[in-house]
Amino acid sequence: MTQQPPPPGPGFGPPPPQYAPAPPPYAAPQQPYAQAPQQQPYAQAPPQPAAGGPDFLAVDKRNAVVVDASGVAFESSGLSIEFRWPEIRSVHYQASPSGKALMVAVVHMDGRFCECVVEAKPRSRLQEWFPQLAWVLGHYRPAG
Question: How far apart are CA 21 and CA 96, in angstroms?
Fold first, then answer.
């Protein structure tokens, strides 16, 4: 009588040799007193808003518009996009046709545009936002 192999253990067992994971590459031991290589600063670090510079913020339940020293940022339903001042050709804003929301559009240098709509609750807040937004945009973009 021939001998049968033992019954398989729990699970599927090891993978066939052609699919087995490769052993980790040999890493040379590091010298304990070697100096770490000098790290190069990033080519373009994100600019930080100027301390004390004016900013504008309009927020509702889903959307937000922020204007500050670095540029204009929109957030819509959890997604955000930032436009830096050198990328922006112009910024436009107006009240929605219903008069219940602020509509802000950023026109990119290549002509593309993006807009964000923020509801003003109470409606009187919209009348507060217009002079604030005009003043902040005038501070960072005096020519338009």
Answer: 59
Q: Which among 55, 39, 57, 75 has a CA at the least distance from the CA of 140?
A: 55
pTM: 0.63
Beta carbons of 72 and 106 less than 8 angstroms apart: yes
- Pair of tokens at residue 23: 């052993």
Residuewise pLDDT in 10s, the chain (144 residues) = 567 666 555 555 566 666 666 665 665 555 555 555 555 554 444 445 445 579 999 999 999 999 999 999 999 988 999 999 999 999 999 999 999 999 999 999 999 999 999 999 998 999 999 999 999 999 998 765
**90 Cβ partners below 8 Å, 6+ apart?**
106, 107, 141, 144
* 109 φ/ψ angles, rounded to the nearest 5 degrees: -60, -30
Cis peptide bond upstream of 122, omega within 30: yes
Q: How far is CA 80 from the centre of its chain?
A: 5
